[in-house]
Amino acid sequence: MRPGLAALDDPYSEIAEFIANRVLPLYGKAVLTELRSTFNPKGHGGHALRLKLMPETDPQGTRDLVQQTLDDGSKELRVAANECLGDSGEDLAFLLEQSKSKAKDVRAAALKALSKLNTGDAVQTVKQLLALKNKSETV
């Protein structure tokens, strides 16, 4: 497991993403302790992958870490934290606000998280933003 965790910081992003998406999830909750101990909310690169992995394994147990990252993490990790939301109705108001952000990456992360919620407001917002995007591409 340790070589896989070290690979999250590989300079070749394809390797790091492969390990994060295909290898480390096989360990299940066994990887959580190591992910937490090597995570830095103000970090970059591999730390975003760590953050995305933790809620996939234990959504409720890592919710505090996601919230902490949203509050005082680096910009890259705040975007990743937005993507980690969407498993609770409590996220709706925050994600609706983030979907109106001027930063394209923040909007995209919020939309990805909103697509996990099955509420009328979330679905309507995703539809509206996708319609705006399609309209601007045809103009």
Kindly describe this structure.
The protein has 139 residues and is mostly helical. It has two domains: 1-84; 92-139, no CATH class. It has helices at residues 2-7, 13-23, 32-37, 46-57, 63-72, 75-84, 92-98, 104-114, 120-138. The protein is globular, with a radius of gyration of 16 Å.
Give the SSE layout:
Blueprint (H helix, E strand, L loop, with lengths): L1 H6 L5 H11 L8 H6 L8 H12 L5 H10 L2 H10 L7 H7 L5 H11 L5 H19 L1
Helix pairs in contact: 2-4, 4-6, 5-6, 6-8, 7-8
Key structural traits:
mainly alpha; 2 domains; 66% helix
Helix content: 55-70%
Number of strands: 0
Straight-line N-to-C gap: 50 Å
Q: N-to-C SSE series?
A: HHHHHHHHH
What is the helix tally? Answer: 9
Number of domains: 2
Q: List the uncertain runs.
A: none
Mean pLDDT: 89
Q: Which term fits the overall shape?
A: globular
The percentage of residues in β strands lies in under 5%
Structural class comes to mainly alpha
Work out the radius of gyration.
16 Å
Largest sheet: none
Put the structure in a nutshell:
The protein is mainly α and 139 residues long.
